[in-house]
């Protein structure tokens, strides 16, 4: 039996696979991906243990459009809620589903447990530490806007959360990219992701650096931010806003980055991490970026189906 593919971390993808998914997402967004239905006859489970608008809809609509049937589970629906283990849950679901798209409350260990079988693909629809499908959609957005990922320079402003970790792992795999992480003190991207990215950056001639202030901003092509209340996490101190408020993306910050477009993984909180003038302004591509989650989700699902008899991808 062919083992099923899992996407739990960006690090699970080879360079070729990463590039294939990003480019394929761009083809879907251009409407040039063709009309094949590689998930025909498949059943996809969609398990969201945390709230979701974009990712859940992108994967649900994507799976349906690619020909699959869907089963959706809310946070209290499975026997997980009454104490059944994630290992037992994964073993049972894998006998019935082809793909499980799951957003978990905690770290990736839960997703790895679901993936500890050979019959069902598992897709990380966001964990507490990494949001790989967001990074794939973000790179597809960059390809659509700039025509390439290579050489694109990104200023990421805000908490070093799941979105930031995935973006760090993904961008560092493209030649000439620069990722300037400017995160509040104490809220940076975890060192293990920076270490992984540093290895990729050396190999691919990319650059990743993290600082905790907004001085000496380099020339960039993209300014990216994220909300201040990351799903499932609570801040260790009650005065965290004083650390975050200098990191609001406002018109002054955008003026310091001439020519840059604005990206946001959403949901947005106008007046917190970004002003309305920036999010709703002419330089914002945040809502195109949100739509690209749907296009990218189809690319991810198609990649999972590659080895199925109905699949056509060879990577
Ligand atoms: N685009 C998304 O998936 N948005 C959902 C929340 C993202 C944010 N990084 C969070 O963890 O709250």
From TrEMBL:
<dbReference type="InterPro" id="IPR006130">
    <property type="entry name" value="Asp/Orn_carbamoylTrfase"/>
</dbReference>
<dbReference type="InterPro" id="IPR006132">
    <property type="entry name" value="Asp/Orn_carbamoyltranf_P-bd"/>
</dbReference>
<dbReference type="Pfam" id="PF00185">
    <property type="entry name" value="OTCace"/>
</dbReference>
<comment type="similarity">
    <text>Belongs to the aspartate/ornithine carbamoyltransferase superfamily.</text>
</comment>
<feature type="domain" description="Aspartate/ornithine carbamoyltransferase carbamoyl-P binding">
    <location>
        <begin position="5"/>
        <end position="142"/>
    </location>
</feature>
<dbReference type="InterPro" id="IPR002292">
    <property type="entry name" value="Orn/put_carbamltrans"/>
</dbReference>
<dbReference type="InterPro" id="IPR006131">
    <property type="entry name" value="Asp_carbamoyltransf_Asp/Orn-bd"/>
</dbReference>
<protein>
    <submittedName>
        <fullName>Ornithine carbamoyltransferase</fullName>
    </submittedName>
</protein>
<keyword id="KW-0808">Transferase</keyword>
<dbReference type="Pfam" id="PF02729">
    <property type="entry name" value="OTCace_N"/>
</dbReference>
<dbReference type="InterPro" id="IPR036901">
    <property type="entry name" value="Asp/Orn_carbamoylTrfase_sf"/>
</dbReference>
<feature type="domain" description="Aspartate/ornithine carbamoyltransferase Asp/Orn-binding">
    <location>
        <begin position="150"/>
        <end position="304"/>
    </location>
</feature>
């Amino acid at each position: 039996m062919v083992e099923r593919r899992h996407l739990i971390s960006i690090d699970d993808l080879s360079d070729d696979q990463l590039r294939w998914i990003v480019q394929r997402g761009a083809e879907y967004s251009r409407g040039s991906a063709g009309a094949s239905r590689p998930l025909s006859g498949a059943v996809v489970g969609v398990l969201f243990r945390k709230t979701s608008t974009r990712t859940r809809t992108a994967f649900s609509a994507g799976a349906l459009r690619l020909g699959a049937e869907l089963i959706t589970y809310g946070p209290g629906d499975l026997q997980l809620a009454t104490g059944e283990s994630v290992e037992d849950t994964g073993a049972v679901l894998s006998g019935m589903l082809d793909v499980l798209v799951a957003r978990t409350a905690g770290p990736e260990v839960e997703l790895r447990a679901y993936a500890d079988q050979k019959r069902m693909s598992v897709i990380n629809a966001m964990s507490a530490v990494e949001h790989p499908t967001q990074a794939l959609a973000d790179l597809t957005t960059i390809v659509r806007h700039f025509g390439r990922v290579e050489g694109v320079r990104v200023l990421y402003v805000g908490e070093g959360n799941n979105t930031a970790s995935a973006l760090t792992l993904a961008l560092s795999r493209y030649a000439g990219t620069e990722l300037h992480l400017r995160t509040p003190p104490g809220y940076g991207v975890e060192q293990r992701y920076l270490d992984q990215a540093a290895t990729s950056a050396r190999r691919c001639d990319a650059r990743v650096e993290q600082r905790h202030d907004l001085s000496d901003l380099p020339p960039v092509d993209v300014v990216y931010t994220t909300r201040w209340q990351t799903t499932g996490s609570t801040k260790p101190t009650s005065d965290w806003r004083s650390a975050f408020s200098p990191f609001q993306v406002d018109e002054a910050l955008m003026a310091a980055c001439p020519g840059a477009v604005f990206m946001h993984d959403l949901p947005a909180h106008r007046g917190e991490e970004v002003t309305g003038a920036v999010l709703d302004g002419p330089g914002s591509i945040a809502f195109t970026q949100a739509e690209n989650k749907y296009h990218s989700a189809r690319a991810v699902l198609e990649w999972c189906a590659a080895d199925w008899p109905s699949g056509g991808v060879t990577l």
